[in-house]
Hints:
The chain is of the alpha/beta class and about 290 residues long. The chain has three domains: about 5-40, no CATH class; about 50-110; about 130-285, 2-Layer Sandwich (Heat Shock Protein 90), CATH 3.30.565. The chain has ten helices and ten strands. The strands form three sheets. Strands 5-7-8-10-9 form a five-stranded mixed sheet. The chain has a three-stranded parallel sheet with strand order 1-2-3, covered by helices on one side. Strands 4-6 form a two-stranded antiparallel ribbon. Strand 1 (about 50-55), helix 4 (about 65-70) and strand 2 (about 75-85) form a beta-alpha-beta unit. Helix 1 crosses helix 2 (about 20-30) and helix 7 packs across helix 8 (about 170-190). About 30% of the residues are buried.
Amino acid sequence: MTERLDESTLxxxxxxxxxxxxxxxxxxxxxxxxxxxxxxxxxxxxxxxxSVVIPVFNxxxxxxxxxxxxxxxxxxxEIVLVDDGSxxxxxxxxxxxxxxxxxxxxxxxxRQIEGIxxxxxxxxxxxxxxxxxxxxxxxxxxxHIIPKRAMRGIEVELSGELSRVRVHAHRIGLLQVMxxxxxxxxxxxxxxxxxxxxxFVDAAEEVIxxxxxxxxxxxxxxxxxxxxxxxxxxxxxxxxxxxxxTTGLGLHWCANAVAGMGGRIQAESRGLGQGAxxxxxxxTAQGGGSCIP
Length: 293
């Protein structure tokens, strides 16, 4: 049962001087439990802290801005910064931040992060809630993982098809996967020192083994990889970079996350220096993938 929505009550719920916990309770009374769950409105447990893992590679000019934005999100966070073998002064900057209450700097034991995430997933008491998601909504947010000032010489283009398809997935997990793939594409282009970098994201509907699926493709014109690397790229701990410069955590975790949503992930490249494509296949939302007749 919800209350009548008058102007004064609405102002109190959306702003004013109410504490966060009181605002959540008021919105629950106004909108009902079901609507609040769909909107992600709920009370955080006492002492709750969200662990945010941020891979870092040669980001001395941007990492401070990323940390600032995470701190401003309004949710208590523990920020885990995993240095990926940076050579531009990033590690020196991270060393200056050691001791901050909300920061955990990892520069030598990066591969242990994967084990931590695996254990967290194994012992989680609540399974991720899946929902119907318009793909464009997630990709538009994921594209912001790269700060605008770092995008000189690199363009991110989102196809109009992304707004036409829906998938059945875990929103936060899908956001992390897409953000990770876009970040990998960006780093691949930066390593090539291209001045005309392009990251293009598209989507299409198809049927695989009698199951309606949506294929989201992230294509870039960065470094690419050979056939041997393509066969091992999603393996735990695998890296095509020099030892100490990456952990293999991102793509292995992405593959597991997508599999947990009933999908799969694939990678293709014509060879070194010829860019690459990553395909994320996810179940079409019930009732069909298209949002527009």
